[in-house]
């Protein structure tokens, strides 16, 4: 470019003229590369790798780059971003589902006003030989639209008394009253139509009928007895050990005298016999 051409394009004398579009693009990319290197740490990029030839490689897209700026420009491109989205979706699908964290519900604080009144009635059905308990708990000042609840508790759940597997507990709860519990025998409950609960909204009385299976009530407490149809043992022989088997005499030996123990085992044979 001559001096006159430079002046016609508006350049100052000695400035060398305007830079071409290609030179401006090269200068812009170089400035962007230096800025990116200052803000982005390539050592923390899991897909950035420098091979033995001195080139830079993207392990996600399997592309080669001559310098770090070219690699940074590639990471902002459409191809690299699509591969990142595919990799994230595949890892999310392969990752096992984690259980949801247990979120404890906030405990509602209620001022207790005391224990409710109750009545317990023992019942017996002679036709089925079945015993049951009828609980009637009164809640005259129960909260509006509330309903009493009951549950069974094992002897090993409570911490008030010593553990006894022969008993269990039935609990009744209704706000703002305290929870009350009743100690009942640890028998299997009959869950048929005889077992029911009823909440009387007029008198505010909660009723629970708890029947037990009759088969457990007929079982003897001390263990089994003779099978059905077999004669009963005499009154004085209950629990006594069985008598010893009758003595069988040994050929060639006199019977043992009275009062001595009988020889249940054979005596050793004498030598030469």
Automatic annotation (TrEMBL):
It comes from the Eukaryota. Residues 56-86 form the Matrin-type domain. It is found in: Nucleus. Residues 225-273 have a biased composition (Pro residues). This is Matrin-type domain-containing protein. InterPro entries: Matrin/U1-C_Znf_C2H2, Matrin/U1-like-C_Znf_C2H2, SF3A2, SF3A2_dom, Znf_C2H2_sf, Znf_C2H2_type. GO terms for cellular component: catalytic step 2 spliceosome; U2 snRNP; U2-type prespliceosome. It holds the Pfam family SF3A2. Keywords: Metal-binding, mRNA processing, mRNA splicing, Nucleus, Spliceosome, Zinc, Zinc-finger. SMART domains: CactinC_cactus, ZnF_U1. GO terms for molecular function: nucleic acid binding; zinc ion binding. Belongs to the SF3A2 family. GO terms for biological process: spliceosomal complex assembly. Residues 1-11 have a biased composition (Basic and acidic residues). Residues 1-25, 77-105, 216-273 are annotated as: Disordered.
């Amino acid at each position: 470019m001559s001096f006159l051409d430079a002046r016609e394009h508006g350049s100052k004398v000695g400035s060398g003229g305007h830079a071409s579009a290609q030179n401006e693009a090269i200068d812009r990319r170089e400035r962007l590369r230096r800025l990116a290197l200052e803000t982005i740490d390539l050592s923390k990029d899991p897909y950035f790798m420098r091979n033995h030839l001195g080139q830079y490689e993207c392990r996600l897209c399997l592309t080669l780059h001559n310098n770090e700026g070219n690699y940074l420009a590639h990471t902002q491109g459409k191809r690299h971003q699509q591969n990142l989205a595919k990799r994230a979706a595949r890892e999310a699908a392969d990752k096992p589902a984690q259980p949801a964290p247990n979120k404890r519900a906030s405990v509602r604080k209620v001022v207790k006003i005391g224990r409710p009144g109750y009545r317990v009635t023992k019942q017996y059905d002679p036709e089925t030989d079945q015993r049951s308990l009828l609980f009637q708990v009164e809640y005259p000042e129960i909260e509006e639209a509330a309903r009493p609840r009951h549950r069974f508790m094992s002897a090993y759940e409570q911490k008030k008394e010593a553990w006894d597997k022969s008993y269990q507990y039935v609990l009744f709860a209704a706000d703002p009253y305290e929870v009350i519990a009743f100690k009942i025998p640890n028998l299997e409950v009959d869950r048929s139509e005889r077992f029911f609960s009823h909440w009387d909204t007029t008198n505010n009385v909660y009723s629970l009928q708890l029947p037990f299976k009759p088969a457990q009530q007929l079982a003897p407490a001390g263990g089994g007895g003779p099978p059905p149809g077999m004669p009963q043992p005499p009154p004085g022989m209950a629990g006594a050990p069985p008598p010893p088997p009758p003595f069988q005499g040994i050929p060639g030996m006199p019977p043992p005298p009275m009062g001595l123990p009988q020889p249940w085992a054979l005596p050793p044979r004498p030598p030469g016999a």
